[in-house]
Write a sequence for this structure.
């Protein structure tokens, strides 16, 4: 017995009934602005199965690396707002890139609609164990003793870790020379060798040196407790303006209709609530840190303000 289309839609699960006709069989493209194996790519692939189940359609991760994520973000911004294209995006593309690139091919406020924040976590403030510094007060005293010889490292100019370090130095009233390296591994090796006095970076890249005891973490730059070091002091508790963190999100083209936005958000939230998905995200680095569209919008505005101030303190000019 055949069921009329109207009746079939009435019987369908709510997330299917809200999707455009034919969307259930058309793959959903989830664009990613970084290469396969990157943190954002891994997060996209972890949430991919849950989204596919809940949306009732295949979800395909589409890696479009280059230009600091701008290539993928521009592709998203130009995509039709029909629920067939979303993006797994990292926070820096949305908050830092507008201040780092002179001719940005998209406007994150005008061209992109916020769906759900997926993960978030702080960069950790780390020091060489050989200095004997065990807390922030000890680092402040150490920098003041060294004076003009003080320095810090980062994976490169314009990275969140570079900009966050300048915000931190401004808050504690200290100065140090920035030493940019080619990636986190080189910067952390320099820290372990005592060539630099401190840096901010993620727990994952720091872990080998932490386990060997040559590097020590003394503070958490994020607003959420660190998964591995939940008792680590948060810099924002002492210096509210110092927030050095990373986050990822699901976003869509700007004019995505509200019903599709809410279905994507529901699917993302329910996927992040799955114990297996949450556990896999915690292994990658930051665990689930869901925010729905309204709360995400507030968070995004705060992050943009922090980014603008940090770039100004770092003295970076758009390229």
């Amino acid at each position: 017995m055949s069921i009329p289309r109207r009746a079939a839609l009435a019987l369908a699960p709510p997330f299917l009934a809200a999707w455009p006709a034919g969307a259930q069989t058309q793959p959903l493209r989830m664009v990613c602005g970084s290469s396969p194996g990157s943190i954002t790519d891994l997060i996209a692939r972890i949430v991919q199965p849950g989204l596919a189940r809940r949306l009732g359609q295949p979800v395909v991760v589409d890696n479009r690396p280059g230009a600091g994520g701008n290539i993928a973000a521009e592709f998203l911004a130009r995509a039709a707002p029909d629920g067939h294209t979303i993006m797994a995006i990292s926070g820096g593309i949305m908050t830092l890139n507008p201040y780092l690139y002179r001719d940005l091919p998209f406007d994150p406020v005008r061209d992109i609609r916020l769906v759900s924040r997926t993960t978030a976590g702080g960069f950790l403030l780390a020091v060489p164990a050989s200095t004997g510094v065990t807390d922030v007060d000890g680092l402040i005293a150490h920098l003041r003793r060294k004076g003009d010889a003080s320095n810090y490292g980062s994976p490169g100019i314009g990275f969140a870790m570079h900009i966050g370090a300048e915000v931190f130095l401004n808050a504690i009233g200290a100065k140090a020379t920035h030493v940019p390296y080619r990636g986190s591994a080189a910067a952390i090796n320099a820290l372990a060798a005592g060539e630099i006095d401190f840096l901010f970076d993620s727990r994952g890249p720091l872990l080998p040196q932490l386990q060997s005891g040559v590097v020590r973490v003394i503070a958490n730059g994020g607003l959420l407790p660190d998964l591995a070091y939940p008792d680590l002091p948060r810099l924002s508790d002492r210096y509210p303006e110092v927030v050095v963190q990373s986050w990822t999100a699901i976003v869509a083209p700007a004019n995505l209709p509200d019903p599709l936005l809410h279905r994507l958000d529901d699917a993302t939230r329910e996927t992040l609530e799955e114990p297996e998905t949450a556990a896999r995200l915690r292994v990658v680095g930051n665990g689930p840190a869901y925010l729905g569209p309204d709360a995400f919008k507030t968070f995004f505005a705060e992050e943009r303000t922090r980014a603008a101030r940090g770039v100004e303190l770092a003295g970076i000019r758009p390229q």
